[in-house]
Amino acid sequence: MRIGELARDLGTSTKTLRFYERSGLLPPPDRLDNGYRAYDRRAVVQARLVVGLRRIGLTVEEVRDLLDGDEATLRPRLLGVLDRHLQEIGLQISVLQGQHDDLAARYRALLDLPKQRDGACVCAALSLPCTCAGEA
Q1: What is the 3-state secondary structure (H, E, C) of 62-110?
Q2: DSSP label at 119?
Q3: Would the pLDDT of 50 be above 80?
Q4: Model confidence over 96-114: pLDDT tens digits?
């Protein structure tokens, strides 16, 4: 299979496949007489694996580590990587939820200001005692 066909089948670009080749994630392909890359069945299977792992968010280094290990232990090692990603994303969600809640409280504090307050007063959003002129 030539690189264009492989890229099309995998829904990626030839540039991406060449990058994976340079990065060591794909073995160097055979070359046809005209210099075109020719991927054998083994390389196609590995390309599918690499593209699939990258699509689920693994880094190039994580993919390399998975490929460098024993093939028989790929699934448990991938489970470990995915578990780490889930934990990291869970932490990011918690941090973002805290930021969201804080901003929502500041927004509500601004909304709840009496109408007679100075229009430039944002003390409530900053959680500061109001010292603005025109305070009611």
Answers
A1: HHHHHHHCCHHHHHHHHHHHHHHHHHHHHHHHHHHHHHHHHHHHHHHHH
A2: T
A3: yes
A4: 999 999 999 999 999 888 8
Q: What is the DSSP string of 5-70?
A: HHHHHHTS-HHHHHHHHHTTSSPPPEE-TTS-EE--HHHHHHHHHHHHHHHTT--HHHHHHHHHS-
Q: What spatial distance separates the first Cα and last Cα of the chain, rounded to whole Å?
A: 77
Token pair of 19, please? Answer: 């990058």
Contact 12, 51 (CB under 8 A): yes
Question: pTM for this structure?
Answer: 0.77
Q: Are 3 and 17 in contact (CB under 8 A)?
A: yes
Tokens standing for 34? 């005209």
Tokens read off for 76 = 């448990």
Find the angle CA(16)-CA(23)-CA(49) to the nearest 5 degrees. Answer: 65
In this structure, how many other beta carbons lie within 10 angstroms of the beta carbon of residue 29? 21
